[in-house]
User: What shape does this take?
Amino acid sequence: MKIETVELVRIAMPLVAPFRTSFGTQFERDILLVHVVGPEAEGWGECVALTDPLYSPEYVEGAQALMRRFILPRLASLPEVRAQQIGEVLSVIKGNPMAKAAVEMAVLDAELSGCGVSLGSHLGAVRESVACGVSVGIAGSIPELLEIVASYLDEGYVRIKLKIEPGWDFEPVRAVRERFGEEILLQVDANCAYGIADSRQLARLDPFDLLLIEQPFDEGDIAGHAALARLIETPVCLDESITSARSAADAIARGACSIVNIKAGRVGGYLEARRVHDVCAAHGVAVWCGGMLETGLGRAANLALAALPNFTLPGDTSASDRYWRQDLTAPFVLDDGHLPVPQGPGIGLRPDPEVLAEVTTSVETLVWSELD
Assistant: This one.
């Protein structure tokens, strides 16, 4: 891949409705896009870091500074840049998987676009469409929650995920089960909001036949998750704790989870995400694809990942209108509970120029030859 310039594009995307989790409420997504341009191809990457370091230590402003000061100059010093080598080259930079993943995604998109290969094909996709679930934030009341869930089921989503936190767990889950019955696929996500002392409270969710409970404890508490997994009947799924294929293998070996949520941004890129998938498959652990309120660019790449064979549970790859009135790309529209896996070269989609211009708040252009 020959690179001439890199654009770090900041955009502001208003959400169709506030999205509340245990770590805060989002009204708008401040998103950093990475646009690499070469003489023969271009590629786009999307950084999933949030505005503030609440979900993870990374945040948008910091990711942009890291790319400018450390990631891109290190890559520019190489004789040539290949997506396959980015993870190893950047391993000397500690942490910051979301920033690394965005750069890798842009280079990988450009490489594959240049040779006419889709991301799904490159990763090993076996499906042309992916079953979709939807993530439901913490509502203002149980009646409001039931209305929201009913609307998503009417739209055709095949799985419902409820965000939970202390004080908002047993009653909302019971209400959803009583209203919609045992036939709907239902799971919960705690985003690290609980501690080991809450284990008995979480065990109260067992009668509701949940697919899983996602990341109840702090990301570093593997021992606590293993203890919880022995105590409760609901399968424990890890999200924030899984930062690499190695950490996935360790968590599985220690009995901390029987299901893994894979987010490419959290593990440092789509190539490492595929390795996490492979490790889990080798251990008989099912995986599903999580979401970070991505635009169509990130959603396209997530769909390619979710089409791999061990993604046996519906992910958070929702339709565009779940979050955006106007997506950055051609919209993804739900069809019988599924979304199509893009078949075009690279990630298969490009930003709509008019929409991109409307939502862009800043563009930083870096000349490749001047970075090293």
Observations:
- The first strand starts at residue 5 and ends at 21.
